[in-house]
Amino acid sequence: MATNGSIFGAMLQEFDGAARILNLEPGIWKILTHPKRQITVSCPVQMDNGEIEVFTGYRVQYNITLGPAKGGIRYHPGVTLDEVTALAAWMTWKCAVAHIPFGGGKGGVICDPTRMSRRELEALTRRYVAEIIDAIGPEKDVPAPDVKTNDQVMAWVMDTYSMHVGHTSTAVVTGKPLELGGSLGRREATGRGVMIVTRESAKHLGFEIKGATVALQGFGNVGSISAELLAELGARIVAIADWKGGVYNGGGLDLVKLTDHVRQRKTVDGFSGGDPLTNEELFKLDVDILIPAALENQITMENAQSIRAKVVVEGANGPTTPDAHRHLHERGVMVVPDILANSGGVTTSYFEWVQDRYGYFWTEKEVNERLEAKMCEAFGAVLQNSLKFRVDLRTAAYIVAINRVATVTRMRGMYA
Prior knowledge:
The chain is of the alpha/beta class.
């Protein structure tokens, strides 16, 4: 598989460093660097104007050694097979780091959902599911929401699958509405996980989370929940920026008023509770904790040298480039990698799957307590390997993940 300049190639670079430290044998190395299954489907849909459009969809099951494939479905014009394959690989490592019994999967359809009606989206979803129906299921592959998909799309996925198998199967997807077997605490889970690893990082570095200063890039689901929960611990949220602009208040931002502002304006920009702030200025702030929770490739060699935070917690997927990460590590800045920091979402998706299969649902308190235990376990394992091998946390996370998948691969042996 060609990897030059590809997203999958970037994943392989991250994989290779950890695999070398583990002295991974060549055979296992080959198995873990090839996707198990890549599915490409054509999805014809009759549009509202009567014309037929054919959309291309993908579902990649990268590795299912630890359990069913797990990963979202995204609707976006820029979806490619290379991207979906890389994301499925990252899900493999994220699930392994979280120590949950899932492999890695991902799906996507090349479309622009912002230009489609609700009926067209439903028709596309149902046709896409029908085309991949033989490959998904509670014990095969469990999709979830991703870019430009939501709980309603997951309800259509669940219903389509259920109609095909002849009975209601809630466990085929996660991220569903509560009424259809969704889990309490799921919406807040990624942000809660970010809060937990941020708190544990502060403990390790020897500073109090109470009174610590925090700057966040992004105030969507992950950023806003992370900010709210860290504030509850006594941290001072001094700066938040999003796609349009930001705000700074050294005494701490009023998150209730800011949330109301964002609900009305759809952006942090223009909030009157502080001084205007650009994304470029955000990364230069003298704060204890920096949380990039927006887009990929936000911390680069252009701004990494200006970062003054003690710890960077990657709420977003891939917000730090490899060169920038190396630079921060060499300067003594702890970077908590995305496959650990934002794994609260997939961990609670696992809880949803368990509850659906069990037919018994937990209280939100029980969900949060279980998430706390799993995130602390994952952080502890990664930190231990970081200290053991004297490597950064990202390499350590890959060491944990690859070792777990490789160990089970050896135990299961080769089917031929």
